[in-house]
Write a structure and sequence with these properties.
Blueprint: H1 3-10, H2 13-25, H3 32-36, H4 48-57, H5 60-71, E1 82-83, E2 89-100, H6 110-118, E3 123-129, E4 136-138, H7 140-148, E5 153-160, H8 163-169, E6 173-178, E7 187-192, E8 196-198, E9 201-203, E10 208-212, E11 215-219, H9 224-248, H10 251-258
Parallel strand pairs: 2-3, 3-5, 4-5, 5-6
Antiparallel strand pairs: 1-6, 2-7, 2-10, 8-9, 10-11
Helix pairs in contact: 2-9, 5-9, 7-8, 9-10
Length: 261
């Protein structure tokens, strides 16, 4: 028996998926256990960019399915949350809340700006603008600061403006809509890195935000490793099904073989 067939015979489908994706994601997993046939499943390294690299490769729909299967929770934002241009990113949430309040205080929004400057590479700026669908929570200036600090992107439960400039610098933003308005004198900073509900989904600082053309999903940091593992498996199955369905001209047979829909 060859080494290849010996290893294949001892690996479960899931562990084979994990091993294959190790190559694609540049070292997400410790592969020794999978290669040697150890009974313990290879774990994810849950630090630094390793975890994010996996979320950058996997489809958001698979992440959403994995979350629902593992936790019973629907952690995706609604169809209203749309990108200003097609994009895909993943990063760690920096949360900001703006509270609706008419004011003439020149310092009312300073905390919002400080939160941006304190964010690090691979952050995702998650802002909730209270009752703010028609208010631009961010624009070109804030986007430039995030771009310079190498944020992964921004998700705004409110509006966005200066879209032409944001597109020019290639900074990805999801928002409820594009509007020309301002939050200045109409809102006050309500806190940073606190739990918020962004488009109805709870987000805490440090949670993983994953986004692509299917939408935005929030992965609680405590669940991130096991959600990613299952999402990668679901992705692998789905992409394996495409040629199978084409060949047999039957989705029934494809679902029967792979158990994925």
């Amino acid at each position: 028996m060859t080494l290849r067939s010996s290893v294949s015979s001892r690996l479960s489908i899931r562990r084979m998926v994990v091993l294959a994706l190790l190559v694609l994601t540049g070292g997400l997993l410790i592969a020794h256990a999978a290669i040697t046939g150890s009974s313990q499943q290879a774990p994810f390294t849950a630090v630094g960019t390793d975890m994010l690299e996996g979320y950058r490769h996997v489809e958001v729909a698979s992440v959403s399915d994995a979350l629902e299967q593992l936790t019973g929770r629907k952690m995706y934002m609604s169809h209203r949350m749309r990108p200003i241009f097609p994009t895909k990113f993943a990063g760690y949430a920096v949360t900001v809340l703006l509270k609706k309040e008419e004011n003439n205080d020149p310092n009312a929004l300073n905390g919002m700006l400080t939160a941006i400057d304190e964010g690090s590479k691979d952050s995702v700026y998650v802002m909730v603008v209270e009752d703010g669908a028609e208010i631009a929570g961010m624009g070109g200036l804030m986007g430039t600061a995030m771009y310079a600090r190498e944020y992964a992107g921004a998700v705004i439960d409110g509006g966005v403006r200066d879209v032409a400039y944001l597109k020019k610098i290639g900074f990805p933003v999801y928002a409820l809509g594009i509007v020309p308005s301002t939050s200045v004198h109409h809102y006050r900073f309500g806190g940073a890195n606190i739990p918020v509900k962004c488009d109805g989904v709870e987000v805490k600082a440090g949670d993983i935000i994953a986004a692509d053309q299917d939408g935005v999903v929030v992965v609680p940091k405590a669940e991130a490793a096991k959600v990613l593992e299952l999402a990668l498996e679901l992705d692998f199955k789905e992409h394996s099904m495409y040629p199978y369905i084409e060949k047999l001209k039957s989705i029934v047979e494809g679902v029967k073989k792979f158990g994925r829909l």
